[in-house]
Amino acid sequence: MTTRKWIREMPLHAMLLPTVLLLIAFSYVPMAGIAIAFQHFYPGHNFFSSPWVGWENFRYMLQLPGTMQVLYNTLFIAVMKISANLVVPITMALLLNEVRKMWFKRSVQTLVYLPYFISWVLLGGILVDILSPSHGIVNQLIKSVGLPSVYFLGDNHWFPFTLVATNTWKEFGFNTIVFLAALTGINPSLYEAACIDGASRWKMTLKITLPGLLPIIILLTTLSLGNVLNAGFDQVFNLYNASVYESGDIIDTMVYRIGLGDAQYSVATAVGLFKSVVSFILISVSYLLAYRFANYRIF
């Protein structure tokens, strides 16, 4: 890089500097704490005075009675969320694409997008009240048709599906806008030619719209593989309780309980490191697949 070019680009580097410093301070420097996963860490001691135990914390983690169930819960909930957050937004985008009244279309877009900005702390309290088996509006409607009330947040059968449904309701508005933006990239002349040939709206959707969305669908699907072990700590933590640990406990909540609740910092760090390593592998694979099938590249 020539001196003249460096001087010309100096404002851009200066603009990035605060962000880079924050990234180093809060993302890279704390990575030194990974050493705790290989130690019997004592609070108040530094990394050098705590005894090293090698892989003992990882062996202990795998021998815990609920570890396999927690891993299954995480994968089950995450896969269902990923699937729902693809199917529902695509369906919604296709339906909105057929609306000709722009005021109605924009109003619906705004309404479905608003829940995306509500935090799970606030939304958790709202859902606890709405889904209450005694006075919640949902169970009031269920009982009005002669069915027994359902304890959505206290039944191990219903809790995972409640997590997926509420997460989809909160998030699908954002993904709908992504797919609506992708729809604008489809050549309008294809629809005109199909209309001249006598194709119905359903045929146009099957033969033009869905194939036009296929690249972005493949891209988002492959990139979502990196989130297979992220089942949503904020949501689960604000909605679950001891009665649904069997079906609702995930890796992140397990780390929280072991680390902060039981003060087993070494074991919690080992669990978190295990998740991070697996997530890193999955993210790498997902970007490789995204480049292979959707020609998506980071650099």
Automatic annotation (TrEMBL):
It comes from Cohnella soli. It is found in: Cell membrane. Its main location: membrane. InterPro entries: MetI-like, MetI-like_sf, UgpAE/MalFG_permease. It is a multi-pass membrane protein. Residues 71-286 form the ABC transmembrane type-1 domain. The chain crosses the membrane at residues 20-42, 70-96, 108-128, 172-191, 212-233, 265-290. Keywords: Cell membrane, Membrane, Transmembrane, Transmembrane helix, Transport. This is ABC transporter permease. Belongs to the binding-protein-dependent transport system permease family. The keyword Transport applies. The keyword rRNA-binding does not apply. It comes from the Bacteria.
